[in-house]
Specification:
The complex is a heterodimer. By secondary structure, chain A is an alpha/beta fold. Chain A contains nine helices and ten strands. Classes of the chains: A alpha/beta, B mainly alpha.
Chain lengths: 238, 271
């Protein structure tokens, strides 16, 4: 399988090597996936429901343990990095916001507080402005709409200054109007901050709008990887 | 001597009267079971099995008490230790998929009830003789078991209901203990609700068995009340200690060394 990035190996930030995950029932949900993600690019993982996209994404920040194979973060085997440090560097925005009970500020500062770091209210306000939630600092999260909650979830991840951002269908739980706004925000954040992004979507149009390259996952396997045009062409020939 | 004691106890007129009382109580249960069939609720088999099992168990304990009553106090501790092991085995069944459940149950019940019994024996709240230690000790162990079962059950439910929040916390690089802290707190609170309610309702809603027994036996009512309070306070202390230990142990048991949540609903694992 072509990793799709062999010519630019010096720019690779994240790489999987024969990544496999077999669950207790003996079912292989991620099957021998090797791919490389270049620094600063946005890679979309596409495929049908149950293809193994989320299972693969959860291996990138080691929320699950691979049965075999590994992930390299800046050429270092991630099993040699402490899970907390790894997850700070490889941030994740989930399908749903999963906010903690309390205020917006309490949610946003959760990561730094867990490491005993102080966060100034100025920094919180800046981040909130950035995700278009200026003035929301003291609001209780139970009063937020779905779109607002997802913005808080994004700010909560960004405060850790991650190098890689994992996004698991971040707009799929939102209604159509909210979805467009959040997608626009994600697009600007992903590019402004020069982040490396891996986004799951089952919407090829969204992949086209947001990603540089696309990886097609099916049955736990990597079928194709390449630019959106290459993959679409391949699909047409298949 | 022992056989003579046993023989005379088994054939005493009190035992015969007790058998008649057991018969009357069983008849009442049979009538209720019959009525339940009439109402479409089939309780027959389960009730019959529970009745026979409960009767046989308590009679065996009675016989064991007669046997151990006149022997060394060490045997009393052995009986209590066996009760703790059985309590842990029964309690861990509530865990359903929680890793390390037997270890947690055994430790929390043994430490929670063990420390309480020991302190009470040392301070002479419980007389250091087998005839007091075993009944009072068993009450304390049963209370710890109930607390542990509730803790296991509640914790599993809390974790399964908040998988998303927990993994969101882990994904932010937070330590597992911090991520589950609020669920551990609510687990400990929920697990000691029966013990708190017992303490709160003492004398108003019910006069517990021990005080009733002492009153029936002609003890000074004030002393009966004092002793009953001491016993209930012991139950509360044992329960709370058990709940806290179970909480602390549960906190770490659901995470792998790589700080991954191990207890996830199966549907999510396969997604």
């Amino acid at each position: 399988m072509d990793s799709g990035a062999s010519s630019q190996e010096q720019d690779i930030i994240l790489e999987t090597r024969h990544l496999t995950r077999v669950v207790d029932q003996g079912k292989t949900i991620v099957n021998d996936i090797s791919l490389a993600v270049q620094r600063g690019e946005t890679l979309a993982l596409v495929g049908p429901s149950g293809a193994g996209k989320s299972s693969l994404l959860r291996l990138f920040n080691r929320l699950d343990e691979p049965s075999s194979g590994t992930v390299l973060l800046e050429n270092v085997d991630y099993k040699t990095i402490t899970p907390r440090d790894l997850r700070r560097r490889v941030g994740m925005v989930m399908q749903q916001a999963y906010l903690f009970p309390g205020t917006v500020t309490e949610n946003i500062t959760f990561g730094p507080r867990s490491r005993g770091e102080e966060v100034s209210s100025k920094r919180v306000d800046e981040l909130l402005e950035h995700v278009h939630l200026g003035g929301y600092a003291q609001r209780d999260v139970s009063a937020l709409s779905g779109g607002e909650a997802q913005r808080v979830s994004l700010a909560r991840t960004l405060i850790n200054n991650p190098q890689v951002l994992l996004l698991d269908e971040p707009t799929s739980a939102l209604d159509e109007t909210t979805r467009a706004g959040v997608e626009q925000l994600l697009n600007s954040v992903m590019h402004d901050q020069r982040l490396t992004n891996i986004i799951i979507t089952h919407d090829m149009a969204q992949a086209t709008r947001m990603a540089n390259r696309v990886a097609v996952i099916e049955g736990g396997k990597l079928l194709r990887i390449g630019t959106v045009e290459e993959v679409l062409q391949n699909n047409a020939h298949a | 001597m022992l056989m003579h004691n046993l023989h005379s106890i088994l054939l005493s007129s009190q035992v015969m009267t007790g058998l008649i009382q057991v018969g009357v109580a069983s008849l009442l249960v049979a009538i209720v079971v019959f009525l339940s069939y009439w109402g479409g609720v089939k309780l027959g088999k389960e009730t019959a099995i529970s009745m026979v099992r409960g009767f046989v168990q308590i009679v065996i304990v009675g016989i064991v008490l007669v046997i151990v009553m006149n022997t060394t106090i060490i045997l009393g501790y052995v009986v209590l230790a066996c009760m703790i092991v059985f309590a842990a085995i029964l309690s861990k069944r509530r865990a359903q998929g929680l890793p390390n459940a037997m270890n947690i149950s055994l430790t929390s019940i043994a430490v929670g009830s063990g420390i309480t019994v020991l302190l009470m024996v040392l301070t002479r709240v419980i007389e250091p003789n087998i005839s007091t230690m075993i009944p009072v000790g068993s009450m304390i162990i049963a209370s710890s078991m109930r607390t542990n079962s509730l803790a296991l059950n509640r914790f599993r439910a809390e974790i399964e209901a908040h998988t998303g929040q927990i993994e969101a916390g882990l994904a932010l690089g937070a330590p597992p203990a911090m991520v589950v802290d609020r669920y551990v707190t609510s687990t400990v609170h929920a697990s000691i609700i029966p013990a708190v309610d017992t303490l709160r309702s003492l004398g108003i809603v019910f006069i517990p068995g021990m005080a009733s027994g002492m009153l029936l036996a002609g003890a000074n009512p004030i002393y009966a009340a004092e002793y009953q309070f001491a016993t209930i306070a012991m139950l509360f202390a044992a329960s709370t200690l058990t709940g806290l230990i179970a909480g602390v142990m549960l906190r770490s048991t659901i995470f792998s060394p790589a700080e991954q949540l191990l207890l996830r609903p199966q549907a999510k694992v396969q997604a």
